[in-house]
Amino acid sequence: MMKTAKQQTVSLFNASPRFVARLVAGALTLTIGVTSTLPAFAQSRSVPIIRDAEIEALIADYTNPILNAAKLKKRNVQTILVNSSSFNAFVDGRRIFINSGALAQSETPNELIGVIAHEAGHLAGGHQERLREQLSRARTIAVIGALIGAGAGVAGAASGNSSAVGAAGGILMGSGEAARRSLLSYQRTEEITADRLAINYLNATGQSAKGMLTTFSRFANALSLNGTQIDQYRVSHPLPRERIANLENLAKASPHYNKTDSAALQLRHDMARAKIAAYSGTGSVQRIFRNNPRGLAARYGDAISTYLNGSARNALPKIDALIKEQPKNPYFYEIRGEILMKANDPVGAAKALQQATALDPRKSSIMRMSYGRALMLTGSKANMPAAIRELKAGIARDPEFPSGYAYLAQAYGQSGEIALADLAMADMHYYSGDRQQAKIFATRAQQKLKKGSPDWLRAQDIINTKK
Questions:
Q1: Start and end of every Peptidase M48 domain (predicted)?
Q2: Does residue 288 share a domain with residue 198?
Q3: pTM to 2 decimals?
Q4: Is the dihedral of CA 234, 235, 236, 239 positive or negative?
Q5: Burial profile 287-307: b = 16 or more Cβ within 10 angstroms, e = fewer
Q6: Alpha-carbon distance values, 203 to 66, 122, 259 (Å)
Q7: pLDDT in tens, 361-386
């Protein structure tokens, strides 16, 4: 089941020459997109994050070979899916963020793998660290310009020379623009480097770079149809046609250029696209799979859409038909469990989710938490130990997922373990970013816990957390 969580973000760039003074306030990101707006993690806005066992498993299979080729595996790079319909991806720290729109719009696995390879190029090339140095340099240019401009303005005002005052404004504006253009030029160079590194990683993993060219062609066509005129010196990325020209010969020289994705991988890709389309709204599934409306992926999306639109009774036979075709697909049982949950049948849901977890080769934390939640919602005291066990097992694999703690708090509450319920609520608020509420619940929990016990110490850690 697709779930969303929150991450912090703020826009890094704007068009004002005064932008440089704010550039160093937040973290830095590098993207594959064609706009000059870069997401960055800081301050108070939020990015919705999608959590889904099926999609995360697919993205991991796309990402791991690339990370190995880029020698990034030991850095514990995370790949995170952002709930956004735009085609984009970006990096921040040791994380690769991929918009759900990038997956939904990529018609083949190879197209999305090319995007991931590009972002890996940014991480492997240390582009974020070097960008910080460029930001510092740009800030210096702007500050010096501002000081000169301010000095000229003061002198002009003191002498009564209005033209000198006007010239001071020009110096201020000019210094900001010079810093801006210098920084954007540097970023365009890094984008070209990341593109070329991506081709190296694709070659090393025996994959085609054709998907990268397809992606850039899509960008170019979109700009052409939109009639947008872009000043190539005022954007952070080379224009799509320029990127294609830079890469085409390299891509076609690879012995893997005409290699296509396996039918099994293409089906998994389509199933993920169907799920995203279903959660995005009615009509999307039909548009994406209009050439194969009775294929497995299209029917999967239709079953999910039917369930989401409020008809569990009609959705159930649709998902059961898919289970009959693929009786060992854990994600079909997972959706069946969610349908039964919506139909107010937690006992049936728990059985379906138990089958899903048993069939899941990756032992997804999200799936185990869903199973634990279903057991808890049965209301049976006999099921509470198993519910708590499954929820804790899921949390152990994914300790920063707030919803897991919320479910665990409910299970502890139904079991009469109030101190542990309060501690779980403290963790839920802690990982949701509400440290004040986390401390309140941790204090309540600590008053009932044995002093010095692991749970008491966890509560103390939360209480001692500094803002």
A1: 64-250
A2: no
A3: 0.78
A4: negative
A5: ebbeeeeeebbbbbbbbbbbb
A6: 10, 17, 11
A7: 999 999 999 999 999 999 999 999 99
